[in-house]
Automatic annotation (TrEMBL):
Requisite cofactors: Mg(2+)
The YutG/PgpA domain, residue ranges: 18-155
Function comment: Lipid phosphatase which dephosphorylates phosphatidylglycerophosphate (PGP) to phosphatidylglycerol (PG).
Keyword check for Transmembrane: yes
EC number(s) stated in the UniProt entry for this protein: 3.1.3.27
Organism placement in taxonomy: Bacteria, Pseudomonadati, Pseudomonadota, Gammaproteobacteria, Alteromonadales
Keyword terms of this UniProt record: Cell inner membrane, Cell membrane, Hydrolase, Lipid degradation, Lipid metabolism, Magnesium, Membrane, Metal-binding, Phospholipid degradation, Phospholipid metabolism, Transmembrane, Transmembrane helix
Pathway: Phospholipid metabolism; phosphatidylglycerol biosynthesis; phosphatidylglycerol from CDP-diacylglycerol: step 2/2
Catalytic reaction annotation: a 1,2-diacyl-sn-glycero-3-phospho-(1'-sn-glycero-3'-phosphate) + H2O = a 1,2-diacyl-sn-glycero-3-phospho-(1'-sn-glycerol) + phosphate
Protein name: Phosphatidylglycerophosphatase A
Main localization (coarse): membrane
Enzyme class: hydrolase
Length: 163
């Protein structure tokens, strides 16, 4: 038998499908990690985009995420349920703003994003606890992505030959 919240969402609903990270958020263990992994194929599809196109797409993924995460949370009647992982997808996109999409960068960026998302250092922890709705669901991950991006920028500056 499915949990009650699961009966309120459907992968056939496009809003739910995206909010649940194409279904990756329904994996019972570590849904945030699997949601972040679901972003990687999308990032590879962006290899040919210039920085402005990628930035615009990142903004779109983030802005639309406020609606789809909020709507799905309302439909589930659970605020920020772990299976809602579009915020991780958007956070991964933010992680790679102004970063070359190379395999080493993607691996290190993924690890950095997951660390910031899981550990929730200041101000992520405050936002996670105080903001609700779609904005609250999205914003902590967007900030985690920004922190991962800055860290990855520093790593690329220190070891440019590696990345």
């Amino acid at each position: 038998m499915q949990p009650e919240y699961r009966q309120r969402v459907s992968l056939l609903n496009p809003v739910h499908f995206f909010a649940l990270g194409f279904g990756s958020g329904l994996i019972p263990m570590m849904p945030g990690t699997f949601g972040s992994l679901a972003a990687i194929p999308l990032l590879f599809l962006c290899l040919e985009l210039d920085i402005w196109q990628f930035s615009s797409l990142t903004f779109l993924v983030s802005f639309v995420g406020i609606y789809i995460c909020g709507k799905t949370a309302n439909d589930m009647q659970v605020h920020d349920h772990g299976s809602i992982v579009w915020d991780e997808v958007a956070g991964m996109f933010v992680t790679f703003l102004f970063i070359p999409l190379t395999l080493p960068n993607i691996v290190v960026g993924f690890v950095l994003f997951r660390l910031f998302d899981i550990l929730k250092p200041w101000p992520i922890d405050i936002i996670d606890k105080r903001l609700h709705g779609g904005t609250g669901i999205m914003l902590d991950d967007l900030i985690a992505g920004a922190m991962a991006c800055l860290s990855l920028q520093a790593i690329n500056w220190i070891w440019p030959a590696v990345f």
